[in-house]
Every structure is written in C-alpha cells, then in structure tokens.
Design goal:
Layout lengths: L1 H5 L3 H28 L6 H33 L4 H11 L1 H14 L12 H21 L1 H23 L2 H5 L21
Length: 191
C-alpha cells in the first residue's frame, strides 16, 4: 500500500489526503449530529471516524513527507543561494564593516597590534578587502554548485531517514540552546 502511495505524484497525494479528510470529516459530523439528535450522549461513530482519519493520516504521512522533500530538492536546484547571501552582504555592507572592526578592536590578541600607527586604516582596508573577496566568491557559479550539492545531499539523507524511520528511534529532540541577549542582531538598515 505504501509503495502505491510513493508512486503517486505530489498533486495526486495532496488530492487524496484532502478528499479523505473532507469525506471523513463530513460523514463523522453528519452521523455525530444525527446521533446527538437521537439522544445519544457520546456518539461512538464519531470516535470511530476520528480513529479512522488518524490512521489514514499516519498511513499517508511518510509518503507525503517524501514527496514534499522531493519537491523541495527539485526547487533547491534552481536557486542561487550564494548570490542571495552576496546581495545581503552588499545591502548590509556598512553595518558588517562596523561590526568586524568592533570585533577586531575587542579581540584581546589585537591589543598590542592596535598601538601601531595607522591601525584603524589597516583594519578598515583588510575588512573591505575581505568583504570584496567574500562577495566575489559567493557570486561565483562554483560556489552556487557547492551549496546546491550540499543541500541536495542533506535532503537525500533526510529522505532516507524518513523512509527508514531513523528519527523515531531517537525520541523527542532536546530544545535548542538559548541565544544570549548579548548576541549581535543583524538586519535591514533602519530608514
């Protein structure tokens, strides 16, 4: 049964899930309303229909997840993500330059070097050069290929884990580490 579901196209799986949910919900609601009108306090048909819909969702969940991941993998191959990062760096150029200069000044290893005449000019030029090299590297199609391969390989690993139910053996994931309040926040310039 699951092989049949995996062979369906994305649209067919979504329509199947939608149809099952609509029909099941409608039938359960109508029968439940009828039983309540007849004086029954707890309609067992409604409980049965809910169990049936839950079972159907569990049956369709894994193939649907794999189909969605296939779709995501196909979309990822069309993107230019490193160019997007390059554009964001260009957009936030002044803030990034100030941030890097600030972090270099705060670095305990740079205290001795900071006494050299022209230190601020050196830091400014090194920062500017580093950002130009980074922007150029991110704009290179080879970097796009690298990131695309990385994302595709990760998606393949995720699909394999979903098929083999590896994530179910691990239990609930632990909550993420809290982000300290002192972490710098980057974003669009306020205008």
């Amino acid at each position: 049964m699951t092989q049949w579901l995996e062979d369906l196209s994305t649209l067919q799986v979504l329509l199947l899930v939608l149809m099952v949910l609509i029909v099941g919900s409608t039938v359960a609601t109508m029968v439940g309303a009828l039983l309540v009108r007849l004086g029954m306090r707890q309609p067992w048909v409604l409980r049965r229909a809910s169990r049936l819909i839950s079972w159907l969702l569990e049956l369709v969940k894994r193939p649907l997840t794999i189909v969605v991941l296939d779709e995501v993998a196909a979309v990822i191959q069309t993107g230019h993500y490193t160019q997007n990062i390059s554009s964001a760096i260009l957009e936030n150029h002044d803030e990034l330059k100030a941030l890097i200069a600030e972090k270099v000044r705060e670095d305990p290893n740079a205290r001795i070097v900071s006494r050299i005449p022209g230190y601020e000019t050196i830091v400014s030029e090194v920062t500017e050069t580093s950002m130009r090299v980074l922007i150029a590297a991110l704009g290179d199609p080879r970097m796009d290929e690298l990131v695309s391969d990385l994302l595709r390989n990760n998606l393949q690993q995720i699909k394999r884990a979903v098929r083999e139910k590896e994530h179910e053996r691990l239990g609930e994931p632990s909550p993420p580490d809290p982000i300290p309040d002192s972490a710098p926040k980057m974003g669009r310039r306020q205008r």
